[in-house]
Amino acid sequence: PFIQLARYDKPVGFMLLFWPCMWSLLLHSLYTGELAPISFFVFFFIGSIFMRGAGCTWNDFLDKDYDKNVQRTKDRPLASNKIKITSAIVFLLFQLFIGLIILIQFNKLTIIFGSLALIPVFIYPLMKRITWWPQVFLGITFNWGALLGWMSISNNLSSVYPFLLYIACIFWTIGYDTIYAHQDKDDDLLLNLKSSAIKLGENTKYAMLIFYSIFFIIFAVILLNLSNSLIIHIAILSLLVHLVFQITYLDIYDAEKCLKVFKSNNLLGLQITFFLILEFF
Q1: How far is CA 265 from the centre of its chain?
Q2: How many CA atoms lie within 13 A of 174 on its CB side?
Q3: Which of 5, 74, 122, 244 counts the most CB atoms within 10 A of its CB?
Q4: Is the separation of the CB atoms in 215 and 272 below 8 Å?
Q5: What is the DSSP letter of 121?
C-alpha cells in the first residue's frame, strides 16, 4: 500500500519530474563544455522519486474524502483505509527526510532554493478547490528541478537559460496535465472540483497548440543559442513532430487515449535527453 500511496509503481510521474532536472544538467554541460558530475544525475533521479512520492502522499492525505467517490481513485490506500492517517504522515516525513539528505549534497544556493520548493508542493493539491488552473501550479511545482540542476553546478543565478527552461517546462506541464485531467472531468464536476480540462472543454486542442507552441519555441531558442549543429536541428524537428502527434492523436472524450498521450511525454523527455547527450559527446 505504501508503494501505491507514493506511486512508486507508476514511474511516468517521477520521470516527468526528473526530465527537467536532466535537461538542466545537460544544457549546463553544453554551455560550459564540461559534463556535470555523474553523481548529480543520480542524486536528482533519486530525489525525483522520493519528492514525487512525498507530493502524492500529501495529495492523497488532502483528497482522501474526494478519492472515495471517484472510480479511478477509490482504491487508493488512504481512500480505502488500507493505511492509517498517522502511518501516512510518518511515511511523508520519511520521504521528505530522504529528499533533505539528497539536497544537502549540493551547494548552499541549491539547498535554499530546493527548500523553497516545499511551498508549492504543499499548496498545489489545494488549488483544484479554488481555481480552474491547478495545472499552472503543478507546472510551477513540478519543474523546480530546471532551476536546481543548473544551480547545483554553477552556484549562481547569472544565466538566463535555467529560467527560460523553467518557463518552457511550465507550459509543457500545463499541456500534458490538462490532457491527464480529461480522464477525471466528469467526477471533478460532480465533486465541485476545478481543472483546466473542464474550463477549456472543446477548446482543449486549441489551448494545447498555444501551450506546446510556447514550450517548443522557448526550448528551440535555448538549444539554438547553445549549438547550431545538425544534431540540435534534428532534436528540434523530432520535438516538433512529437508535440504535433500529441495534439493530433488526442481525443478528449476517450479516457484511454488521454492516458496514452499523457504517458507519451515520458518518451518526449527521453528523446530530448538522447539528443542532448549525443550533442555533448
Answers
A1: 10
A2: 26
A3: 5
A4: no
A5: H
Is-above-0.85 flag for pTM?
yes
> 190 is written with which cell numbers?
460532480
166 contacts 150 by C-beta, under 8 angstroms: no
Task: Give the span between the Cα atoms of 11 and 27, in whole angstroms.
Answer: 24
Task: Tell me the three cell numbers of residue 166.
Answer: 523553467
Residues 6+ apart with CB under 8 A from 66: 73, 191, 193
Phi-psi region of 33 (alpha: psi -120 to 50; beta: other; left: phi over 0): left
CB 71 within 8 A of CB 183: no
Coil, helix or strand for 10?
Answer: coil
pLDDT digits (tens, 9 = 90+) for 18-36: 999 999 999 999 999 999 9
Provide the pLDDT confidence category of residue 190 given band limits of 50, 70 and 90: confident
